[in-house]
Specification:
The complex is a heterodimer. By secondary structure, chain A is mostly helical. Chain A has 13 helices and two strands. Chain A has a two-stranded antiparallel sheet with strand order 1-2. In chain A, helix 3 packs parallel to helix 7 (about 225-245). In chain B, helix 14 (about 415-430) packs parallel to helix 15 (about 445-460). In chain B, strand 7, helix 6 and strand 8 form a beta-alpha-beta unit. The chains are: A mainly alpha, B alpha/beta.
């Protein structure tokens, strides 16, 4: 400790500059964050290309195939939109909850319960057979949202009352929801031994573009259904709730600093339950739109993991309802492409890489790079 | 140009540390602009400056946390370049930070040995206990080396921090606002310790913005303002507080608080036999009785952690009481939620600006409407009138001089003083009947303190009752109409005649007049 020689290693390699990350003190301009997101996307596609070429594929062919398979013409784009509809609704569901830092991982389960809720309207039946279409659809949407909200209420209540971690409870409830649905399609509403219910009457179908092909022949074969209208209405409603309403303000405040929210007199527990219910309701509506717009019956495999992809969608959209639409279309395309190209794991892989790159790029949002000339002494 | 060799620079023999022409540029701020600082052996050198003046940057450079963009540091006459705090401590430079870095569940000795290379594997604790005890006694820092940190008072924990760097062979001790956590009596003892250490050849850099302490203890003073040195190594003899303040702030500061004579009105808050628990479920308040009238500032003095925070939280509805009664304007609000307390006109300047008082990532607008978003004009039905909210924020921003780029700026980007103004603006603009102000000037610089104190006095003139909780006795004495002293969750006395000695004794729980200590309510 008495050794006071200057600290200096003699054999250090001298680089004339130094790259440093420093916390960003100011705010980002909108174009800067857009640029960072774009760069992250490009980097993730490059990484994906590298992996593709390592396994012996031609990355550019693969990419152009994905693009063609999901955005190539109006027909496949329509299919992409079909995939995007549940993603939009679930992306919204997750955005609402995540705004409050409530980690609802249970959108998948709420989606299944929503599908179940919509199905009982036809299968019990709640509305008499032969009801007009608008009665069917509105009652089904209502039931789906109520059942989804109920599935959100349970973990919300547990969190508010007993401080049960919502990540665990919502995740576990996904399995219960799937098993619940399976019980009904195997045992109760099994149609001729198949694990699916009977086909719903036409009146309970969400109208598709192709249904109007008599009037407008260009729409023939287009499967995009009216669930898209539900989804877009919900985008506007959720946006308004989150950024214009008093409740949205409370959600933002709780999300950023629960202590400050409590200090401002906001009831956090009540809001935990309400937000979980809204989140569940939105996911439930996605279940209804899938049942009523695509498969037209209650059956098993109605979701290729929408509930989980929705989490990614919400995250990438930075919890912004309008961006949720754009990201959902992109991911809808990737899901669709997954069926088209072999090996089908590639789009999933790219999804994963995009997510990792975007999350990593967040570091650049919070920090800035500085290149400093080394001050040699 | 700078000297490009490693040769020892010839300086006076008694100079321990010399920093010459230190420049450090941060994005948008020149934190240190050609700063020169020298420390002589055996002196206490006060480093004075407002928040953001560059004191911390300079010390972080000296301890190896930052690398200067330019400039030269010599220690004991030899040129040094530190790239980590470890190298600084190897050269005998150690720092005690304002917030202690100790492991509460471990003993004093264990904390001191933490992170050292020796002992390597087997902790021969009894041997090291003896070493620590001996070191403590030599340096005037007596301590039980086997005590666990959580059992120690704040003052004792500070001793552990000092021992930690002394054990590592520190010759130069940098103390960052060391007196902020101490009671007046402890400060005296602490200064004796510092003297004892300097008499043994240690040199001390004393960072502070308490001017009276600087005048009392420092051999020399260096004052910084906006990254520059405005007074280098001056002898404080013959300087007044006013002179130092002027050097710090760059303008005259009025220390005489002008208080209007006001006859207090009716009682706004009355508390009877209030008890509550702290976060660990231990009793924090054990029967507090007090009352506050309109138009008076009531001070609450006490060493930190004697129930002040809990009292403020119970009054504002943030904490549940276990016993007793709170009434505001004769209405019982005991056991109601914070919203009800806000509705009855209680506003609250919380102790913790960042974690309770504001939502850091939300905009200035969102932060100022926190208490008023439920009323018109900001509330419009179940929506928020964005135009009205932004107008409100713009008005407050200019009325309270909040320096922020826009009203959309997240408040985490604001400085401490500005953040405090955001909170004050919000809490005052609701025109409260009662204001609970916890440490409203802590961590602020002289200029900002003046502004905050004026705002509190204006509230008093406007007829609000104010409970002022502060660890700055000077401030309490200057602002308060009367002062309660709290000790271990009880009000141990009420002082109306500004008798600072009596307050000091009461704060330490050693009442000179034991028989009148408890439950006293009247003047």
């Amino acid at each position: 400790m008495t050794n006071l020689a200057p600290v200096k290693s003699k054999n250090k390699i001298r680089i004339p500059f130094q790259v440093r990350f420093e916390p960003r003190l100011g705010e980002l301009k909108w174009w800067q964050s857009l640029l960072i997101t774009l760069i992250a996307l490009i980097v993730s596609l490059l990484i994906g290309a590298l992996l593709l070429s390592v396994v012996g594929g031609n990355p550019w062919k693969a990419y152009s195939h994905i693009a063609k398979a999901s955005f190539g013409d109006i027909g496949v784009f329509s299919d992409t939109m079909v995939k995007a509809i549940p993603l939009i609704l679930i992306g919204l569901a997750c955005s609402v909850a995540f705004r409050m830092k409530l980690w609802n991982i249970g959108a998948e389960g709420q989606f299944f319960l929503g599908a179940f809720g919509a199905s009982i309207v036809v299968l019990i039946p709640i509305v008499p057979d032969g009801s007009p279409s608008w009665v069917y659809i509105s009652v089904m949407a209502l039931f789906a949202m109520v059942f989804g909200a109920l599935w959100g209420f349970l973990p919300g209540y547990l969190k508010a009352r007993f401080n049960v971690n919502e990540v665990i409870s919502t995740l576990m409830m996904n399995y219960i929801a799937v098993a619940w649905n399976n019980f009904f399609i195997y045992a109760v509403w099994s149609e001729g031994g198949f694990q699916m219910s009977k086909m719903f009457p036409k009146a309970a179908w969400l109208p598709r573009l192709t249904d109007f092909s008599k009037q407008i022949p260009e729409l023939r074969g287009l499967t995009t259904h009216a669930g898209l209208i539900f989804a877009l209405i919900m985008v506007v409603i959720v946006w308004f709730l989150l950024s214009r309403s008093r409740w949205g303000y409370e959600i933002r405040l709780i999300g950023d600093n629960p202590k400050a929210a409590n200090y401002a007199g906001i009831q956090i527990k009540k809001n935990v339950i309400l937000v979980m219910m809204l989140s569940g309701g939105l996911a439930g509506l996605a279940g209804m739109s899938e049942i009523s717009g695509v498969v037209h019956r209650l059956q098993g495999a109605i979701s290729p993991g929408y509930g989980f992809t929705g989490i990614i969608v919400a995250w990438l959209a930075k919890l912004n309802p309008f961006l949720v639409v754009i990201v959902s279309i992109l991911f809808g395309g990737l899901i669709l492409a997954g069926r088209e190209i072999q090996p089908s794991g590639i789009p999933k892989l790219i999804q994963g890489i995009i997510l990792v790159c975007l999350i990593a790029s967040d570091y650049l949002v919070r920090n800035r790079i500085r290149i400093i000339r080394r001050m040699e002494d | 140009m700078m000297n490009n060799s490693d040769q020892p620079t010839e300086l006076q023999a008694d100079t321990v540390v010399s920093m010459q022409g230190i420049v450090k540029q941060f994005p948008g701020v020149l934190a240190n602009d050609r700063v020169t600082f020298t420390l002589k052996r055996g002196e206490i050198h006060a480093l004075l400056g407002e928040n953001g003046a560059g004191k911390s940057t300079l010390m972080n450079i000296l301890t190896g946390l930052y690398k200067p963009d330019n400039g030269m540091i010599t220690v004991q006459g030899k040129r040094v370049v530190f790239s980590s705090p470890n190298q600084a401590i190897a050269h005998g430079i150690g720092m005690v930070h304002q917030h202690f870095m100790l492991v509460p569940t471990q003993t004093v000795t264990e904390n001191i040995l933490l992170g050292l290379n020796e002992p390597r594997f087997r902790l021969n604790l009894s041997k090291y206990n003896a070493i620590v005890k001996d070191l403590g006694e030599r340096m005037g820092l007596p301590i039980d080396p086997t005590a666990h940190i959580w059992q120690l008072s704040v003052g004792e924990q500070q001793r552990v921090e000092l021992l930690k760097i002394l054990y590592r062979g520190a010759e130069v001790l940098i103390l960052d606002e060391p007196t902020a956590v101490l009671a007046p009596q402890e400060i005296e003892a602490f200064f004796c310790t510092l003297r004892k250490m300097t008499s043994q050849g240690k040199s001390i850099i004393f960072i502070s913005h308490k001017l009276n302490e600087v005048l009392q203890i420092a051999d020399r003073v260096t004052v910084m303002r906006r990254g520059r040195v405005t007074a280098e190594g001056v002898n404080p003899n013959g300087l007044s507080i006013r002179d130092l303040a002027k050097l710090m702030v760059g303008r005259e500061i009025t220390f005489d608080v002008k208080k209007e004579d006001i006859t207090p009105g009716e009682v706004v808050l009355s508390i009877e036999d209030l008890a509550c628990e702290n976060d660990k479920g231990l009793p924090a308040l054990r029967g507090v009785t007090m009352s506050i009238r309109h138009g008076e500032i009531v001070g609450l003095a006490g060493v930190a952690g004697n129930g002040q925070r809990e009292l403020a939280e119970v009054i504002t509805g943030l904490r549940k009481s276990t016993r007793g009664k709170i009434t505001i304007h004769d209405r019982d609000v005991t056991h109601t939620d914070p919203r009800n307390h806000i509705r009855h006109g209680i506003s609250h300047i919380p102790e913790d600006r960042h974690h309770t008082g504001t939502a850091p990532n939300l905009s200035l607008t969102d932060n100022v409407i926190m208490k008023s978003y439920t009323h018109a004009p900001i509330s419009k039905g179940w929506t928020i009138n964005q135009v009205a909210a932004e107008r409100y924020a713009t008005d407050l921003r200019s009325a309270y001089n909040i320096l922020s780029p826009t009203i959309k700026t997240p408040v985490r980007l604001l400085s401490g003083g500005n953040l405090q103004r955001v909170i004050l603006a919000r809490e005052i603009s609701t025109q409260p009947a009662l204001m609970v102000a916890m440490q409203p000037t802590r961590g602020l610089d002289v200029g900002a303190i003046e502004g905050v104190q004026k705002l509190l006095l204006l509230q008093r003139e406007a007829g609000a009752g104010i409970l002022l909780v502060s660890e700055e006795l000077d401030e309490l004495l200057a602002l308060s109409d009367r002062i309660y002293v709290i000790f271990e969750g009880r009000i141990v006395g009420e002082v109306v005649d500004k008798d600072i000695d009596r307050i000091g004794f009461l704060m330490c729980g050693t009442s000179p007049e034991k028989n009148e200590a408890m439950g006293e309510k009247n003047d």
